[in-house]
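One such given next:
>
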Amino acid sequence: WVNYVLARDKKNQFKFAALQGDPGRALLGMMGRNSDDLSTLVFLDADERVHIKSEAVLRVVSACGGIAGSCADVLRTVIPRGFRDWVYSDIVAPNRYKIFGTTTNDKCRRITPALRARFLD
């Protein structure tokens, strides 16, 4: 997911933190979420609103723009959140590596200072 977003976030508007790391756990606490709950993707928007599951994914994809962003906007408008969250939790999340790919030793990114600045931990 992170590589997917990094490749499409041309405005460098997103920063990342592992939920199990100190910055991630602190952010979860600030958001009123259990800092031990690592069950889903969490997105804190510019207005400090918390989004999880399908809403988080679709808002990030939308902000990245392009055709996928336009599709994300339509999905958020047309499909009820409960159904989207079910699809996310039961279909997308368990198959995320098939959908977004996996990072292996031969595919690791070179961490540049600019890229490093996008990670909070």
